[in-house]
């Protein structure tokens, strides 16, 4: 009898908890209905009483955009035109100024200018803020609206007002152009190869393999080290970042993504094969290195496959999923965060370099007062006719680039130092 009573009490308790849970669900559902009714009421008021007639389509799209952009700067609604344009961008060719942007404190913030684009040539820098577009204030616009205003027909001018730290706001006139992204570039610096990745588009990994093969041929197999330049790389496609990381790693995790639910976690691992065959790698990063480029930098750093040199990265460690919806549009929704192999979140923190080296301007110091052999009375004359040539004559384009790039200089010095150290270790 006691057992039956105990069993009945347990059943009664479970039943009451079930009713309570159902009550909570019903209450939550009722709250949702109330909020939707509120939306409908506001919508009808705006539609019928606003000072000017507004298209229903525009109102609804604005409401959807407002909902998504209230979540984070990277979630947004793409109508059919924007969705098609986004598809073109990921293929590596599109029209515009050539800048990757986000929204911060009501202003458009430049994540990074793209190499050899109108914006880069005009001197736009990572970290710049755009306050006005053609003298119209950006404040109050959504990111999509601001971007739409910056786009336009090729060869048409646009005036943007730039706010830069430590300077007074200034205007920059830029002529729009077709943006063709060459995602991978190479150079030879004596026995050190230089490989720059400007963005992660659909062809980045394929271009990486092709250009690295060219680099090896140019250097006749004598490459003693590699500089991987990810500065001002705004990111792009996740699968390309994984493939590029895999090209330099033999094993281990590259990156993981974690969403709201525990069962949505994904891990991506490297496969055997390092295209560089283990030579020293120095990775250049800065505040314009974002998203996919941070994944590559973080993977190489955590596996001690590359030394990171430069300044802290941008800190965009979130995953956006493109979800097609009706009317041939889509929503760009943040669905997860990136984590490096060691479990560090990139979001809002970025990747810290192993060696902090800010970009600096190299200047040649005056040496007019230095005493040399030639200043001594009775010095012997040099009989070699070629000796009159100065050391600055006949300098290649690569060397000129090197002179202007302090961070690259330090990266090359570091690789040379590593090679010297390894040679001494083998000799001892």
What sort of overall outline do the alpha carbons produce when their principal axes are compared?
Answer: globular
Which blocks of ≥5 consecutive residues have pLDDT under 50? 385-397
Helix/strand class = alpha+beta
Helix-strand pattern: HHEHEEEHEEHEEEEEHEHEEEHEEEEHH
- Strand residues, percent: 15-25%
CATH topology name of the domain at 184-325 and 336-356, in short, is: 2-enoyl-CoA Hydratase, Chain A, domain 1
Which architecture name of the domain at 184-325 and 336-356 does CATH use?
Alpha-Beta Complex
Round the mean pLDDT to the nearest integer and report it. Answer: 85
Radius of gyration: 29 Å
**Record field, number of beta strands:** 19
Structure description:
This protein has 428 residues and is of the alpha+beta class. Among the domains are: 95-180, PDZ domain (Pdz3 Domain, Roll), CATH 2.30.42; 184-325 and 336-356, 2-enoyl-CoA Hydratase, Chain A, domain 1. It has ten helices and 19 strands. Helix 7 packs parallel to helix 8 (292-302).
Tags for this entry?
6-stranded antiparallel β-sheet; 10 helices; 428 residues; Pdz3 Domain; 2-enoyl-CoA Hydratase, Chain A, domain 1; alpha+beta; 6-stranded mixed β-sheet; globular
Short account of what is shown:
This protein has 428 residues and is of the alpha+beta class. Among the domains are: 95-180, PDZ domain (Pdz3 Domain, Roll), CATH 2.30.42.10; 184-325 and 336-356, 2-enoyl-CoA Hydratase, Chain A, domain 1, CATH 3.90.226. The chain has helices at residues 2-49, 56-69, 80-90, 118-121, 143-150, 204-218, 238-248, 292-302, 397-404, 406-427, and strands at residues 76-78, 93-96, 99-104, 107-113, 129-133, 136-137, 157-163, 170-175, 177-180, 184-189, 192-197, 225-229, 253-258, 266-269, 281-285, 307-310, 318-324, 330-339, 355-356.
């Amino acid at each position: 009898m006691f057992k039956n009573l105990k069993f009945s009490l347990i059943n009664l308790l479970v039943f009451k908890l079930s009713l309570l849970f159902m009550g909570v669900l019903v209450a939550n559902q009722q709250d949702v209905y109330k909020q939707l009714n509120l939306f409908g009421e506001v919508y009808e008021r705006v539609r019928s009483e606003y000072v000017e007639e507004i298209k229903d389509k525009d109102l609804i799209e604005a409401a959807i955009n407002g909902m998504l952009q209230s979540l984070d700067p990277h979630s947004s609604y793409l109508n059919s035109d924007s969705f098609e344009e986004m598809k073109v961008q990921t293929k590596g060719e599109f029209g515009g100024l050539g800048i990757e942007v986000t929204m911060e404190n009501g202003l458009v913030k430049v994540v990074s200018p793209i190499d050899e684009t109108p914006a880069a040539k005009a001197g736009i820098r990572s970290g710049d803020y755009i306050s006005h577009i053609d003298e119209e204030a950006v404040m109050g616009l959504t990111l999509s609206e601001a971007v739409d205003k910056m786009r336009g027909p090729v060869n048409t001018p646009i005036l943007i007002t730039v706010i830069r730290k430590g300077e007074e706001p200034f205007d920059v006139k830029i002529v729009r152009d077709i943006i063709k992204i060459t995602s991978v570039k190479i150079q030879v610096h004596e026995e050190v190869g230089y490989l720059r990745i400007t963005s992660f588009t659909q062809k980045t990994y394929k271009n990486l393999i092709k250009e690295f093969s060219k680099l090896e041929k140019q250097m006749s197999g004598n490459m003693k080290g590699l500089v991987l330049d990810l500065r001002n790389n705004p990111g792009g496609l996740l699968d390309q970042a994984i493939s590029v990381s895999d090209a330099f790693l033999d094993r281990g995790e590259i990156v993981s993504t974690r969403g709201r639910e525990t069962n949505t976690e994904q891990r991506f691992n490297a496969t055997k094969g390092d295209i560089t065959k283990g030579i020293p790698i120095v990775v250049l990063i800065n505040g314009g290195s974002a998203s996919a480029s941070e994944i590559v930098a973080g993977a190489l750093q955590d596996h001690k496959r590359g030394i990171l040199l430069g300044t802290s990265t941008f800190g965009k460690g979130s995953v956006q999923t493109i979800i097609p919806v009706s009317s041939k549009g889509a929503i760009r929704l943040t669905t997860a965060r990136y984590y490096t192999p060691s479990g560090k979140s990139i979001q809002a923190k970025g990747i810290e370099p192993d060696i902090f080296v800010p970009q600096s301007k190299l200047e040649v110091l005056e040496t007019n007062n230095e005493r040399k052999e030639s200043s001594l009375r009775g010095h012997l004359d040099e009989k070699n006719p070629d000796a009159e040539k100065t050391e600055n004559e006949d300098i290649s384009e690569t060397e000129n680039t090197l002179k202007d790039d302090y961070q690259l200089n330090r990266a090359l010095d570091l690789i040379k130092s590593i090679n010297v150290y390894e040679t001494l270790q083998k000799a001892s």
